[in-house]
């Protein structure tokens, strides 16, 4: 089934690129109006009116191929796996190592400094008033 998905993805990308190219080649609706007043040439590679039919039909066919590939990829993306159960049940979670009983908070940080002998929290100081709070360069 993986081969089918890869083939569908390749066909979808190629049809999208070809459709972009065909849309960029086509003339807009106002291109013929400018040619009627003498600016530009109304002739093209496929003739005066043949390009509109050929390019329009080619774009429509490529759009249909693109949408069919999109629907097929969406179908194959939602196919249920053969195993049952939750995705979370299949994941492997590493077991954390237990922390020694006498370890302080900084001992739990890898590469941290050794903790002081007493675990008393330092008393917070009052913030500096006024201009002392402005950092200097």
Looking at this protein, list some descriptive labels:
137 residues, mainly alpha, 3 helices, flat
What is this structure's SSE topology?
Layout (H helix, E strand, L loop, with lengths): L1 H24 L5 H6 L13 H28 L60
Helix pairs in contact: 1-3
Short description:
The chain contains three helices and no strands. It has about 140 residues and is mainly alpha-helical. The chain has a domain of about 60 residues.
> How many β-strand stretches?
0
- Report Rg: 35 Å
Mean pLDDT: 74
Overall form: flat
Any low-confidence stretches, pLDDT <50, length ≥5? none
Descriptive account of the structure:
There is one protein chain. This protein has 137 residues and is mainly alpha-helical. The protein has a domain at 1-28 and 49-81. It is built from three helices and no strands. The chain has helices spanning 2-25, 31-36, 50-77. Helix 1 (2-25) packs antiparallel against helix 3. The longest helix is centred in the middle third of the chain and has 28 residues, at 50-77. The chain is flat. The protein starts with a helix and ends in a 60-residue tail after the last helix. The mean pLDDT is 74.
């Amino acid at each position: 089934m993986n081969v089918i998905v890869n083939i569908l993805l390749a066909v979808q990308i190629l049809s999208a690129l070809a459709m972009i190219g065909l849309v960029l080649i086509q003339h807009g609706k106002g291109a013929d109006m400018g040619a009627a007043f003498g600016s530009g040439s109304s002739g093209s590679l496929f003739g005066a009116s043949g390009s509109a039919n050929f390019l329009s039909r080619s774009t429509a066919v490529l759009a249909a191929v693109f949408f069919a590939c999109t629907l097929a990829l969406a179908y194959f993306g939602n196919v249920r796996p053969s195993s049952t159960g939750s995705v979370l049940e299949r994941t492997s979670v590493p077991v954390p190592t237990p922390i020694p009983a006498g370890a302080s908070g900084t001992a739990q940080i890898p590469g941290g400094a050794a903790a002081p002998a007493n675990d008393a929290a330092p008393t917070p100081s009052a913030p500096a008033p006024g201009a002392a709070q402005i950092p200097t360069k």
